[in-house]
Design goal:
- Helices cover 37% and strands 31% of the residues.
- It contains 5 helices and 6 strands.
- It has a 4-stranded mixed β-sheet. A two-stranded parallel sheet has the order 1-2.
- Helix 2 links the parallel strand 1 and strand 2.
- The radius of gyration is 15 Å and the shape is globular.
Length: 156
């Protein structure tokens, strides 16, 4: 959930999209309700849970999604949530995506350690999926991110 940026952008692009938004921290949820218009999002389901646990449970339940945005940052440098680049996590995401679903990874790019982790993720994804794109975003406020998009079309 963060500051409600990704979910607000998705709602702006298409207000009929149902979003299941996972956030582990109830304080973040409350702050987004108070300051970032979270309750104004149409079709949003807010789930207060650890994303890793939620993904694992969803994989076991056979639940399917059109798209999954992995926008998980850590409060500790290099700010990349550890585990989001691991094959186990990616395989679980793949299991809960629809056949033509899309994965989107938003990752910080503010340190060499974060860039190295992102390069490893891209290498893994390119070895397992046909369509992997990496876009670099330099926010005018000074933030730098890599946004990786993956169509759920495995290499056979």
């Amino acid at each position: 959930l963060g500051a409600n940026t990704s979910s607000a952008l998705i709602a702006k692009l298409n207000s009929s999209i149902h979003q299941a938004i996972i956030e582990i921290d109830p304080i973040i949820i409350r702050a987004c309700r108070e300051y970032f218009f979270l309750d104004d999002l149409p079709n949003a389901e807010i789930i207060n849970e650890d994303a890793f646990v939620y993904i694992e449970k969803a994989a076991k339940s056979k639940k399917k999604f059109d798209a999954i945005v992995v926008d998980i940052f850590s409060g500790i440098a290099p700010f990349v949530a550890r585990g989001t680049e691991k094959p186990k996590f990616i395989n679980q995401i793949e299991k809960i995506l629809k056949k033509d679903g899309i994965m989107i990874f938003n990752r910080p790019d503010d340190s060499e350690q974060a860039r190295r982790s992102t390069r490893e993720l891209i290498k893994y994804l390119k070895n397992h999926f046909k369509d992997v794109k990496d876009d670099y975003i330099h926010d005018p406020r000074g933030y730098r991110n890599d946004v990786i998009t993956v169509n759920n079309k495995p290499i056979v």
